[in-house]
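Pasting as-is:
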Amino acid sequence: MARLTLLAITGLALFAAPATAQSVTPSETVAAPVLDHPVAKGDLLAAGDFVTQDVPAGQARTLPRLKDIVGMEAARALQAGAMVRTSDVIRPQLVRRGEPVTIALRQGGLSITTAGRALGNGAAGEFVRIVSLSTNRTLDSVVEATGLVRVAAQ
């Protein structure tokens, strides 16, 4: 009886192996960009960071185009040979939590600037909370450039 069970299990394994081996064929691979070297969290991605490698078509189908990820910032550390997904990148952060910022208020011909500190991270055009160092007030602002935020006149 034990010999019969062993033969039945072996027979199933023999019949199952060719089906899985044939499920991926060379014609089902496509050229996709993968990272040439490790990238640290916060680094900006450039076209030179990528090489083309054949990957299974099913995996490459969900990848963003190279032009959509070049210039983006790595949201986490990425390993060499990794296929970069949309969730792996963010827009470049121009303001970072805890870093000094210049707060600008512009209305008509009047422009006032003061020093502040960011309470969160932000990319261009995003809202970020900041604290004014001169008044110690927390303000909502919009990121304009690296280390520069704009507040609205109240």
